[in-house]
Amino acid sequence: MNKKIFLLSISLCFALFAFATIPTGYYNSANGKKGEALRQALHEIIDGHTSISYSALGDYYALTDCDATGHIIDMYSTCSFTIDDARSSQTAVCQGWNKEHSVPSSWFKKGTPMYSDLFHVIPTDARVNNFRGNMPYGETSSTAYIANDSHSLGHIGSSSFSGYSGTVFEPDDEYKGDFARNYLYMVTRYTTTNFTQSTGAEAVFTYSGGQSGLTTYAINLFMKWHRQDPVSQKEIDRNNAVYGIQHNRNPFIDYPYLAEYIWGTKQNASVNMTTDVISSSDERFTPGVSDGSLTSLTPQIITSTSQLSFGSLLNGNSRNQNLTFSGSQLTNNILLTISGTNAQYFSVSPKSITAANANGNNLVTVTYSPLSEGSHTATLTLSSTSADDVVITLKGTCQQACTIQWLVNGQEYTEGEPDTEVALGATPTALPTPPASCSETSEQFAGWTATPISSSTNDIPADLFSAAEDAPVINNATTFYAVFAHIEEIEGSAPISDTYTFADHYTSNADATTAQLANATISFDKANASTAAKYYDTSLGVRAYGGSQIIVTGNNLQEIQFEFSTVGKDHTNEITANVGAFSTDTWTGLSNKVIFTIGGTSKFRAIAAITVTSQEQATDYQYSYFITQCSSTTDIEEQAISTQQYQKFLINGHLFIRIGEHLYNSNGQIIK
After folding, report:
1. For residue 96, what are the contacts with CB-CB under 8 A and spacing of at least 6?
2. Strands (E), 54-184
3. Residues contacting residue 282 through CB under 8 Å, at least 6 positions apart
4. Residues spanned by CATH 2.60.40.10 within the chain?
């Protein structure tokens, strides 16, 4: 820390010491108010704060946003930054931090004093901040890392929360309440500010008659986050620190339950600041647990579920479920007891939580171990002196066992210890070791079927499977028969080859298109290309400016060959690969990922087709018939069965078979 910041920190520490908690009578004028009148009363209390300059914010973050080790608490990443790591916009996560307006500054045209208000301007990872831009906060089903980096927190994607369908930034669960209370503060501190002056803002804010407000979408979202992620000690400390700097407070951190009287369940009730709500400075308040209502002072056990379901099990098997819960204002042990008609089939461990741990987060394991068929229920009761009991319903079903028999050539087969029974409606998970081929004839093992083949057939059985993930659901006692097939090799063969021509229409903003052969995947990527890298609608193929990339991934690319077909001027000599050698005609890969980069800076390269060729020589075969029982008297030549010509080839040790225009895997499933 430089001398200027050090001296500033000393002076501020004295100020913070003097104003560590809520001043007596600070919120007196809010007493008896409700709804909009309460918001206006709170506005009058926190209005007119001491405004600091935007450039000076970084000097204060050591007091407001650093942990005990001097590292910034970054709500956008798990990176480790000190105050000295301040940077402008970066090209990767964890390169530095910069200032983030949780309410985007474009929404209020960088107006003051909002632009430098410490309550909502926070230090965050510079790269994640750049990705968020001015997107509204929300919830999304996307699980992709921001900037493809696991150090980033939150997700970006289409909104999955009712009321808005655009692209949103979803913060990490740990900080959703923090951001919600930032917005509740902003719309209360700046009741006459228009926050709807940029894209996305109208999803969150309203502005009418000179008054700002929150949309229904924003109220529902932020109240959900406010309730699910209660005020933490981090927020309490930051609120006190900011008060020491700009001399106003966030009332929804000081009195969290006040939000219910403005936007929540208490809008029609007037608040009594003495008997209805408690403050986060009250020694009885539990950060991260209490909602700030008076009822939170009552000893209670808190859990997020009222039922544990164990699904279906076989007689004699067991299944565990974890239960999490916490206590508030508890002074005695929490006892866990199981009762009810089928209590003997359920157990819990541990059976008690000590008083010392009762008010923290706790986890116990509940086990279901049925010994008779049927549906079973019981209740798990969590109890502690002075607290209301919490009752959890326990449900499980003991299913009838369906037997499975495996037959090879008419004889029971148990090699590999396969499943011999499963629950009704389940699938076998342990298959036998693949049996040897028929000893006296040339039939080879192909898989299992539930229907015996009475006479040889040229058709692959519809239910043929050789892997557990492909096994059928079992609904009764079942017998599986080993299937064998006769394969006859034919002289003469050629490599298998497929040419992928590109559709007539690719939109200019398409990110990629893919094509597959066996285990090779081809995709187009313009993420690392120059700004001129585009894909255009064309009947000639894919036109890509210099810098665009063709990415090939697979498990064994050294056995795949590629040939690029171009149209118009031949630019294939300007395509380079990151490994191996590439010529104007063909390239043979040497790794599991190869990136072809299209050279040049202005002229387009038109790729009309890519030919993918297996370097393994394919062998032609004839499949004469499928059978489920070998026979030494079988005379293949006398079987009047039509045959088809096949090609068999291996890629990365996996067998693939071509029959006419179709490509099958070893299970007989069409993959192309």
Report:
1. 81, 85, 86, 87, 88, 90, 125, 126
2. 97-101, 121-125, 155-158, 167-170
3. none
4. 300-399
Single out the residue of 311, 379, 389, 313 nearest to residue 348, CA to CA.
379
Report yes or no: 95 and 31 within 8 Å, Cβ to Cβ.
Answer: no
Please list the alpha-helical segments (H only) found in 34-168.
Answer: 35-46, 57-64, 126-132
Backbone torsion region of residue 668, taken as left when φ is above 0, otherwise alpha when ψ lies between -120 and 50, otherwise beta? left
Q: What is the SS3 string spanning 602-652?
A: CCCEEEEEEEEEECCCCEEEEEEEEECCCCCCCCHHHCCCCCCEEEEEEEC
Give the count of beta carbons closer than 10 Å to the beta carbon of residue 616. 16
| CB neighbour list of residue 640: distance below 8 Å, 6 or more residues apart | none
Please answer whether residues 161 and 217 qualify as being in contact, where contact means their C-beta atoms are separated by less than 8 angstroms.
Answer: yes
251-306 confidence digits (pLDDT tens): 999 999 999 999 999 999 999 998 899 999 988 888 988 899 987 778 889 897 89
Say what the alpha-carbon torsion angle 533, 535, 540, 546 is, to the nearest 10 degrees. Answer: 10
Residue 559 tokens, joined? 């056995």
CB-based contacts of 611, cutoff 8 Å, min separation 6: 497, 498, 499, 500, 562, 563, 565
Q: How far apart are CA 244 and CA 241, in angstroms?
A: 5
Sign of CA dihedral 564, 570, 574, 580: positive
Name residue, tokens 């279906």.
Answer: 312
Give the CATH superfamily of 300-399: Immunoglobulins (2.60.40.10)
Q: pLDDT tens-digit profile of 149-171?
A: 999 999 999 999 999 999 999 99
